[in-house]
TrEMBL record:
Keywords: Disulfide bond, EGF-like domain, Glycoprotein, Membrane, Repeat, Signal, Transmembrane, Transmembrane helix. GO terms for molecular function: C-X3-C chemokine binding; collagen binding involved in cell-matrix adhesion; fibronectin binding; integrin binding; laminin binding; protein kinase binding. This is ITB1 protein. One of its GO terms (biological process) is cell migration. It comes from Brachypteracias leptosomus (short-legged ground-roller). One of its GO terms (cellular component) is cell surface. The keyword Hydrolase does not apply. Residues 72-151 form the Integrin beta subunit tail domain. InterPro entries: EGF_extracell (IPR013111), Integrin_bsu (IPR015812), Integrin_bsu_tail (IPR012896), Integrin_bsu_tail_dom_sf (IPR036349), Integrin_I-EGF_CS (IPR057243).
């Protein structure tokens, strides 16, 4: 695979590569979670990819949990201030809530639907005025978060 040299029909891998075809990277950087742990402490890094040992968790660093409580609640205050300019983080929004890309959509049926390659959470939360608002939260393989929120 270009990560070694062939000697007598056997690959001799360059440093940081292993496998019969030198196709397995020993670099753990792609497995590093935002908390500094390999695979968020919930898996093993194999060939530069996390193999999550807890089936609830997925994603490039085992940081996404579709069935866990908290993804929606954790981000609701930031989405509220970014999308509607209100809520508990209104005053600190520009400091605390710029960690995701945000797209506004006209209605709930315009939100991204399951089946896309990135793990996706559909959220329904109450705002400070006791009204429901809807959004999706997803993280791509580069660890970039994207939010779609209904206007």
């Amino acid at each position: 695979t270009g990560n070694g040299i062939c000697k007598c029909r056997v690959c001799e891998c360059f440093p940081n590569f292993t496998g019969s075809a030198c196709d397995c990277s020993l670099d753990t950087t792609p497995c590093m979670a935002s908390n500094g742990q390999i695979c968020n402490g919930r898996g093993t890094c194999e060939c530069g990819t996390c193999n999550c040992t807890d089936p609830k968790f997925q994603g490039p660093a085992c940081e996404t949990c579709q069935t866990c409580l908290g993804v929606c609640a954790e981000h609701k205050d930031c989405i509220q201030c970014r999308a509607f300019d209100k809520g508990e983080k209104k005053e600190t929004c520009s400091q605390e809530c710029m960690h995701f890309n945000m797209t506004r959509v006209e209605s709930r049926d315009k939100l991204p639907q399951p089946g896309q390659p990135d793990p996706l959470s559909h959220c329904k939360e109450k705002d400070v005025d006791d009204c429901w608002f809807y959004f999706t939260y997803s993280v791509n393989s580069n660890g970039e978060a994207t939010v779609h929120v209904v206007e």
